[in-house]
Amino acid sequence: MLLTEMLARNARVYPHEVSLIEREPAIDRRREITWLEFEQQANSLANNLIKQGVMKGDKVAILLMNCLEWLPAYFGVLKTGALVVPLNFRFTAEEIKKCLEVAEAKILIYGPEFKERIAQIKEELSFVEGFIFVGADCPAGDESFTKIINEFSSEPPQITLCAEDDAALYFTSGTTGMPKPILLTQANLASACQTENNHHLQTHEDNFLCIPPLYHTGAKMHWFGGLPVGAKAVLLKGVKPEWILQVVSEEKVSIVWLLVPWAQDILDAIERGDVKLKDYELKQWRLMHIGAQPVPPSLIIRWKKYFPNQKYDTNYGLSESTGPGCVHLGLENIHKVGAIGVPGFNWQIKIVDENGNSLPAGKVGELAVKGPGVMKGYYKNPEATRKVLRDGWLYTGDMAKMDRDGFVYLVDRKKDVVIMGGENIYPVEIEDFLRSHEGIRDAAIIGMPDARLGEIPAAIIELKQGWVLTEEMVMEFCQDLPRYKRPRLVFFDKVPRNPTGKIEKPKLREKYCQDQELLKASC
Predict the structure, then answer these.
(1) Fold for domain 3-399?
(2) pTM of the shown model
C-alpha cells in the first residue's frame, strides 16, 4: 500500500479523530487537524497543482519550518504523481536557488520565514512556474495555501500511482560538501512505514512527538511508523527540556525520538533542578529512541536512571536508505547499548574492506546495507551513484565493526578518520570518551595538519553550564585513553551540529586548521 493510500484509508476509518497537532509553547499556541481534514487538504492542494499544469514526474519543492501544513503539502504533491522536494530550512538564498535548479522545480511551496530569502532570488527563478505561500500576508503574485484548501475540490485527484514511480528528491545533509539530490520511489517511502512499524510496534493508540525538521528523512520516516495504523502525532516547535516534557505530559505522548543534545539537555535540566519529573504525567511514555548520530553509552545509562521503565532503541540510517531503520538496536537489546544494532526489518548488512570483501568480526571496514529502502540513485548523477551502489548494496561511507553476536558498532565517517603517522584514529571513540566527563556537554575530534605526522587529533569541547576546565585538565582526563588516541590539542568552543544532529566537521576544520596549504591536502 502506498503512502497516499494509507492516508486515504485513515480518513475513511478515523475521519473525526485527530491526526496531527502543532504545539508552539513559546507563544502558547496549539492547532490540530483530523485525518479527514488532513486528506482533504492534501487533495485540494493536489487539484490546484494539477490545474497549474503539474504532471507526473514534475518536481514541487517544499521550504517550510515544521508546521501543521507541512505534511498535508507533502502528501498533496505525492497525490499528483509529481516528485516532492523537501528543502533544508537552513539553506541560504543561493543554496535554495542551486537546489531548485538541480531539482528542476516547477512549483515552490514556502513559508513566512523564507520571504526575504525568496525575494532575493525570485528574479533568477524563471524556471519556477508558481509559488504557493503558507501563512498570512501572502506576497503579491503568489497563491495562498489557505485559499487553495478552502476553494479547491477536496475530492482525490484521478492519478494512478505505482510502487515503481519516482516519488521524492531528498538532498543530502551536506556535511561533506554540496548536497546531492537522492531519488526515492513510492516503494522506498512505503517500505519505511513497514520497517518503522515493525521495529517500534506502533498501534492506533500511540502518539509520536516529532521535534526534528520534517524536510529530513529521519523525523518523517519515524512518523511513518504510525501512518499504517492511524496513530496521531505532535509537531513541537522548540527543543527546551520543559517544553518537551510539558507536551509529552499534556498530549499523552507515548513515543519520542530525540537527538543526543536534546536528551543531554533534558538530563542536565533534571540534575540542575530546573525541571521536576513529578510535575509531569509521563507514565504513558513507553519509548525513547535516538538516531542520526552515534549515541554515547554513558548517556543511556544516565537516561535509564531517571526513566527506568521506558524502552530504548537506537536507529541507524541515511537519506540514501530512505532514512532510519536499515540497522537498529532493537527494543530487547539494551544490554548492547553502544552498538547501532543488527539488520533492520527486511535489510541485510555487511562490513567490507576497500575491495568490497566481507570482513570477519572485530575488523573495521565500511558498512554496506541492502534492502527495500535503498535509493534509486543520485538524481542525474550516474558517476556519484556508481560509487555507492554496487549489486544492490549501498556503501554508506561509515566505518564500522561487527562483534561475534552480529551487532554493528559505528566507528566513524570514512572521511573523518584521522590518520596520524599511518595509524587510523576513529574520532567517535574519543568523542564518546570525552562526553563521559561530567563537565563536558559535547565534543568533536578533527584531524589537524601536522608536518611530521600528517595529522594529529584535536578536540573541540563544549562545556556544560557552570563548568570550567583547562586544557591540562582535559589532557589529564584523557590519560585513560591509549596514548595514540589522546588529543594533542584542545579548544573550548560550541560544537556545531546540523538540524539532524550531525557534527559539522567541515566548519570546525575551516575554523581551526590554520595552515591552508596543509588543510587542502588533508581536510
Answers:
(1) Rossmann fold (3.40.50)
(2) 0.84
